[in-house]
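assembly run, all chains below
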Amino acid sequence: MGEVWTLAEYRHEKLSTVSFELLNRGKSLSQKLNVPLASVILGSNIKKEDVQELIERGADKVYVVDDKNFKNFLVEPYANVLMELLNEYKPDIFIAAATTTGRTLMPYVAVRIKTGLTADCTVLEIEEGTGNLLQTRPAIGGNILATIKTPNTRPQMATVRPHSMKPSLPDRNRKGEVIYKNYDESLFKAKSKYLRFIKDESQQVTVQDAKVIVAGGRGLGKEENFKIIGELAELLGGAVGASRDVVDRGWITYPHQIGLSGKTVSPALYIAAGISGAVQHIAGMQTSENIIAVNKDPDAQIFHLANLGIVGDLNEVLPLLIKRIKEYKAKEASKNVQ
Amino acid sequence: MKIIVPIKQVPETSNVKMNPETGTMVREGVESIINPLDLYAIETAIKLKEKFGGKVTVISMGPEKALEAIKEAIAMGCDDGVLLSDRKFAGSDTWATSYVIANGIKGMGDFDLVICGERATDGDTAQVGPGIASFLDLPLSTFTSEILTLGDGRIRVKRLVEGGYEELEMTLPAALTVVKEISDPRLPTLRGKLKAKKMEIPVLGPQNIDVKEENLGLNGSPTRVVKIFTPKVTREGEKIFVKDEKTLNEAVDKIMDFLIKKEFI
Ligand SMILES: Cc1cc2nc3c(=O)[nH]c(=O)nc-3n(C[C@H](O)[C@H](O)[C@H](O)COP(=O)(O)OP(=O)(O)OC[C@H]3O[C@@H](n4cnc5c(N)ncnc54)[C@H](O)[C@@H]3O)c2cc1C
Ligand SMILES: Nc1ncnc2c1ncn2[C@@H]1O[C@H](COP(=O)(O)O)[C@@H](O)[C@H]1O
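ok done. output:
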């Protein structure tokens, strides 16, 4: 049986933490199958410490392709090189994160090598007896869960939702094998060219990466009130989310929109303020681990999802909450000094 | 400029009902609509046509009923459409779907752009767009939020990624999947509706396009659905009513306890 592989994402010359979440998932699969766990890393100027970190966090092997052409993600060369690796080493399972990169690269590759790919999985398990990968994912806006397998072709490919698992912890004594690969220039040819990255300052913490999201809806009443949401998000080290209604009103930009026609997120904590909880909104956030809702309408749909629901005016609740968090933090800080 | 827009007909899921016993969706009485995210692809294509001239063709794979979706797209301003429909296509996963649509597109002659929606609201995979691009060996921009320039056999686009935007340049023909930010879909016009009503939409099966039988439908699909079930959303769901100063303080206390207990602060 082949190895279990994870895609380590190298973006802006940094290893992203989803790479460690994938290792954590991969570990349980590889242990069950009793095969090595390997990470593939494609990038340019890949730091030795980063490769070492993958090993310390669980990889038995790391396949490294370090090429100047991999400075930025472009699907064609990435797919070409990945196919070479997959054809040579024939892993049994190959998982990537459901990021913009994973969601682009994985289907492009799966089509070429004719194998199954399951998108946006939240649970991965090994089937007793067959050793097949059982992949569970939400569909129809999270209204159902489907378990899918790829019985006859290999590798079994899946993308996994960021934050659906904790990153694996490092063990500084772990040892592993590093395999450097070089490929012919022709594989890096592309009909596309990367021009530039434009940072969106309002996405200091992006909703996809955030552990905590504080989201505001029409109940905010006016654009200025997004400041309260921003302040609370910052205090919690989180990102700002929004309903479509307020994005359409221009109170905040589209990258913050959560839901059917926005982003699907599963943070550890989602705070919804002044959001009614329309199905299209819920479709994007119902897999959040914890949900707190603040809404003045006791019958708002969002309360059906909330672990903690506050029926009240967000203009009273949130400012007081912010004040209390600040006081708490100040108290904790002074404790640490003593 | 010749633009192809793959669109999918999906159940209107905004008031989806689940059968709690079978865990399946109640389809009776559920209206079918164009996948809402495909409207942005249609609008993008029509805008490009208005600016650069040319033609927009929609293509859909699905049951005969999907002709409605194609006609609606034509009523919005697309020029014509093709339906890929046959019992042999039924049960296709994203691999087999991309395969049939890509080969349907191949049979339509030269084109400049394939523009897909980001994802379909029923299957929710976002895999068919990149899949089509891969089968057709096209450069691809996913999550496209803006078309910057188009000309000299090239297109420059902006795509929405984690933390910002990326700009790409691709040679034509190229494939895009688009997000809501790219356009504001128009409504069908009365004239468009009349035109669509009269138009004969070709319905193609495996005998009309260059496909291998073993790659179709369930047999051609590498994945299998093992089971479908309804998620249990079990939330204790404590609800606190704020009525006055005192209950306000209690409510905030509760939130603080929650945040501290779960180590968010
Ligand atoms: C095809 C399609 C796609 C869609 N995609 C999305 C999507 O991706 N994301 C999305 O969010 N929506 C989406 N929608 C829209 C969705 O149906 C709702 O219209 C939208 O989510 C409503 O936003 P809201 O909750 O902010 O506003 P509302 O529904 O107006 O809710 C505002 C809430 O604020 C409460 N409120 C008011 N004042 C206060 C106060 N002072 N304190 C506390 N609470 C207060 C009210 O009680 C109310 O519940 C989509 C719709 C369609 C048709
Ligand atoms: N059956 C289909 N017919 C035509 N286009 C489709 C079909 N399924 C998916 N697509 C296109 O692929 C995109 C992504 O769909 P999906 O991968 O199913 O989420 C959609 O927005 C459509 O543009």
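Chain A is about 30% helix and 25% strand.

Residues 314-337 of chain A form the longest helix (24 residues).

not gonna interpret more than that til we talk
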